[in-house]
Write a structure and sequence with these properties.
With 237 residues, the protein is α/β, with parallel strands linked by helices. It has helices at 2-36, 54-69, 103-111, 131-139, 167-179, 211-236; strands at residues 40-46, 73-79, 115-123, 153-160, 184-185, 197-200. Strands 1, 2, 3, 4, 5 and 6 form a six-stranded parallel beta sheet that branches. Strand 1, helix 2 and strand 2 form a beta-alpha-beta unit. Helix 2 (54-69) packs across helix 6 (211-236). The protein is globular, with a radius of gyration of 23 Å.
Length: 237
């Protein structure tokens, strides 16, 4: 009986050691995989003609939440306000003599392989995106030549003048353009979990009082970051 107990204890000890060793190897592998992922960048594109207003503020909240996910995430906000982006060039029309265009400056920045996520922000005008957002998305046709945006994570935040002011319609409209680029589209993550960040401008250019909208913006930023990291890790393996 004593020998059986001794043998049983020995087997149990060996099994426990094997389990601990396997767990340690799993943790070590996870840490190694995490270390292999280089820094990635998530860019917010504010498509409001009003610089530094509510759309930019909503994107800043998204980007802050994204950066908080992991120290390897870098963020950048680009505001199209004040830029000259001619949507007609997407149809192959030439620039008029003396006319300037700023879109080409954005091409290498957005096509950079280190950019793993892009969040588009737009105000809602008559239930849809702004003219500036549409011009920008039309000009992104240039990326389809090589599908340079393929595999990047895309999210959308829409800011409306009412709580139910067409934000979701606008988000889905922008989604359509991003899907044509073979981007990986995500909505705002749980617990809100809808099509994207739906933010309400209360008419005083203050979105901070919109608690629900703020939660969708944070959840969207976090979700874009989580999926971007996961995809980057898969590519490294």
């Amino acid at each position: 009986m004593s020998d059986k107990l001794t043998r049983r204890n020995l087997l149990a000890a060996v099994g426990a050691a094997a389990t601990i060793g396997a767990a340690a190897n799993t943790v070590g592998t996870s840490q190694e995989q995490k270390a292999q992922v280089d820094k990635i960048r998530i860019i917010g594109i504010a498509c409001s003609p009003r610089k530094g207003k509510t759309t930019a503020a909503a994107l800043q909240i998204c980007l802050k939440a994204a950066a908080d996910v992991d120290p390897r995430i870098e963020t950048e906000l680009i505001e199209l306000a004040g830029m000259k982006i001619d949507g007609s060039l997407a149809a192959g029309l030439p620039l008029a003599p003396g006319q300037e265009d700023d879109f080409e400056k954005l091409v290498p920045k957005l096509a950079d392989p280190k950019v793993a996520g892009i969040i588009i922000g737009t105000p809602v005008y008559f239930g849809n995106m702004t003219y500036l957002c549409k011009a920008f998305l039309d000009r992104c046709m240039t990326f389809r030549k090589t599908f340079a945006l393929s595999g990047k994570v895309g999210g959308v935040v829409a800011v409306g003048a009412a709580r139910n002011g067409g934000q979701e319609l606008t988000i889905r409209s922008v989604h359509t353009s991003l899907l044509c680029q073979e981007m990986v589209i995500v909505g705002d993550g749980k617990p809100t979990g809808h099509t994207g960040a739906t933010v309400w401008n209360n008419g005083k250019d203050d979105i901070t009082t919109d608690e629900f909208g703020m939660s969708t913006a944070r959840n969207l930023g976090r979700r874009v970051a989580e999926i971007a990291l996961r995809l980057a890790s898969d590519i490294k393996q």
